[in-house]
Amino acid sequence: MQRQSNIELLRIISILMIVIHHVLVHGIYNAVNNSTLHFIDSFVIYGVNIFLLISGYFTINLKWKSVINLFWICSFWKLFHLFYETYIVKVPHSLFEWIAKPLAIPFSSGGWFVDIYILLLLLSPALNMALTRMNKKELSLTILLISIFNIVYCWGVGRENNTSGYSLYHFVYMYCIGFYLKSSSFSYKYPYFGIVICSIFTFILYLVLGGRAFSYNSPFVIIGAICIFTALNKVNIQSRIINITAQSVLSIYLLSDGGLFSKNMYQLYNEIIKTSANTVVGNLKIAGIVFGICIFAILLDRIRIIIFKKGIYPFSEYISYKYYHKIYHK
């Protein structure tokens, strides 16, 4: 099945939004914390929610190959960070760590997003079964009830331990909305206007509530993500370059936000802002470094993909064949 380049472009946009948000929060804010940067942040806070909407729109098809591939991506970048820390910044790691960390992906992928997404992946068969059995009215009622819990109870009232959307139930919530968008053919008439309005209201909320305005379960962050998804879903494009690049979006995330590598980069961004003649020059330098990191992740990921296609997946298929052959031919 040929990939839809508009959705693949949306994946790329979502990961770039996540990267920019992290650069701002973990890097630049530590040096210059002003309203202009928070205004920019209000336009890029949608990345995580967009990614979850895509998952729900197309539904996660839990297959052996996709599970092995996800674990291999996480393991590959665990190995990269171990290599960087051991041989570049000279932080020693024992042989046990070199073996255990890449194999501990189901329990610790190295980032909260992937940890929770793995849980969503494992939950997806039951979730898909429940959603497909609902009619439109039942699905609408379910989303309304989850909205009350996730937005009003968790984000609005703050009566849950995790009030910012860093949770499995928020992931399930966005997945359900994505499924609803597909099943109901729902779309905003003026999505670009919605994006601007949601971003402005997010910034206004920041001036009143502070960082809570950038929570993933904020109503404006949710609606803004839906607007962006709707806008790109209408675009009819087909590009091999976009499709190939989109294969590496998770790798970009795992490189740019993992281990000492990301901490060193954030410290570098901090120093660049502090030592630059003006903020514009500093931001341009940071943008160049971030672009270079993304290109590096995409190029290195081609090696990861080749290893998977030529080695890991055929080997896993062979082991699987031998196992079932042994079970059913005793």
TrEMBL record:
One of its GO terms (molecular function) is acyltransferase activity, transferring groups other than amino-acyl groups. The chain crosses the membrane at residues 12-31, 43-60, 67-84, 104-127, 139-158, 164-181, 190-208, 214-232, 244-262, 282-300. It comes from Phocaeicola plebeius. The lineage of its organism: Bacteria, Pseudomonadati, Bacteroidota, Bacteroidia, Bacteroidales. InterPro entries: Acyl_transf_3_dom. This is Acyltransferase 3 domain-containing protein. Coiled coil: none annotated. Residues 6-298 form the Acyltransferase domain. It comes from the Bacteria. Keywords: Membrane, Transmembrane, Transmembrane helix.
